[in-house]
Amino acid sequence: MKSLAGNRKSGLSFARLLCGLVMLTVPLTTSYGQKKLDVQKVLEKGNYKASELMVAVPGQNYSILATEVTQELYESVMGENPSEFKGEKNLPVESVSWVGAVKFCNKLSEKEGLDPVYSINGVTNVYRWGVGNDISEEIKWDKEANGYRLPTLEEWQYAAKGGQGYNYSGSDKLDEVGWYDGNSGDKTHPVAQKKPNGYGLYDMSGNVLEWCWDSYFSVGRYKCGGNWYENASFCEVGVKSWSNADGRFINLGFRIVRSTGK
Question: Which one has a higher pLDDT value, 101 or 45?
Answer without folding.
Answer: 101
